[in-house]
Amino acid sequence: MRKIWIAVLAVAIVLAGGCSSKETKKQEIEKEKQAETDKKETEGLQAQFPLTGVGTTEISSDRAVAVVVNNHPQARPQSGLNKADVVYEVLAEGGVTRFVAIFQSEKPENIGPVRSAREYFIDLASGFDSFFIAHGYSPEAKEMLERGEIDNINGMQYDGSLFKRADFRKAPHNSYITYENIVKGAEMRGYGMDKAPEPAVFLSGKEAELLEGTPAEDFMVSYGSPSFDVIYKYNPVEAKYHRFNGSEETVDFESKGPILLDNILIVQMDHKVVDNAGRREIDMNSGGKGYLFQKGKVNEIQWKKEASRIIPYKDGSKAGFVPGKTWINIVPSISDVSFDSPQ
Known about the structure:
Elements: H1 2-17, H2 21-42, E1 47-48, E2 55-56, E3 65-70, E4 86-91, E5 97-103, E6 110-111, H3 119-126, E7 131-134, H4 139-146, E8 152-154, H5 155-158, E9 163-165, E10 175-178, H6 179-189, H7 205-209, E11 214-215, E12 218-221, E13 230-235, E14 240-245, E15 248-249, E16 260-261, E17 263-268, E18 271-273, E19 280-282, E20 288-294, E21 297-306, E22 309-314, E23 317-318, E24 326-331, E25 337-339
Parallel strand pairs: 3-7, 4-24, 7-8, 17-24
Antiparallel strand pairs: 1-2, 3-5, 4-5, 6-10, 9-10, 11-21, 12-13, 12-25, 13-14, 14-15, 14-16, 17-20, 18-19, 20-21, 21-22, 22-23
C-alpha cells in the first residue's frame, strides 16, 4: 500500500508541475468564492448544537434520545443512523456488535431495527440524560429499567403500538419506531423532553484546520468476524469518513446515502463474559488507551469517564472534537485497531 501511495504522489507532483498559471488563478478564484459562501452560511449562527458543535440560529433545548440499533447482517442497512449525533458501537453476545445511537440535533422519521438493552447500553445513554429506547433486555438491564435508572420505553410493553414490525424483515430484526412515537411514548409516561444535554468540547474551525497528528486515512477495527469488522475510509474532498462492514458501505435504508462521520474515537475497555449466553461485563469506569481519528489523522489518547461520558484526553487536556458527527468504537484491546502510516 505504501508503494501505491508513493506512486500516486509522484503522479500528482508531475501533474501539478504542468498546471498553468491561468489554472492556478482559476483555483484561487474558486477558493475565494467558496470562502464567501461559507461566510454567508454561518452568518446569524449564534449557537451550537450540544453534541455536534454545528452552528444553529437558536439554542436547542431538545432532550437527547438514545436508541439501541441492531447491527446483525440481516438488519442492514439500518434506518436513521445518518442523523445520529453520536453512535457507540459495542459488543453484545459473541462477536455481534450493536449501536447505541444518540439523537439530538436531527430527528429521523424512522429508526431501527431496534434491539434489546444491556446494562452498559443504559450506562452509555445516561451520560446524555437520554430518553432510552430498546426492544427487549437482559435480566440485568431489565432490573435497571424497572428501578427507573433511566427514562425509557421498551418494545416488550409497546410492541405493535409504539413499535411496529416491518414486513420486509424477520424478527428479531424487524422492530422499528418513529420519532413521532418516541415523543408520544414520552408524553404517555410523563417524561420531559425539553432539556438539552451538556455540550461536548469542540475545536474551532481554525483549530480543526490546523489539527496535527499521524496521517491515517484508512483503518480497521476488528471485532473478530468479517461480518462485524469495521473499515473507515477518509475522503479528503468531503473531509468526512465513510464506514464499511467489510466491503459493504454503511448507508441509510431510506435515502441510500452513506453515513458520513467527522470523528472516530476508539477506546479500549476490559471485557468479561459472565454467563452461558455469552453476555458481557464491560469496564466503563477505569479509563484507558484509545485513538482519535479526525481529518485523516490519528492521535493517541487516554479516555476517562466523567459524568457518565467517555471523554478523550491528550497531553493531560480534553481533546476537542471536530464539529460534526462522532462514532465511538469500544474494543476489548487497542491492538484490535490497525492502520498504515507513511514512514
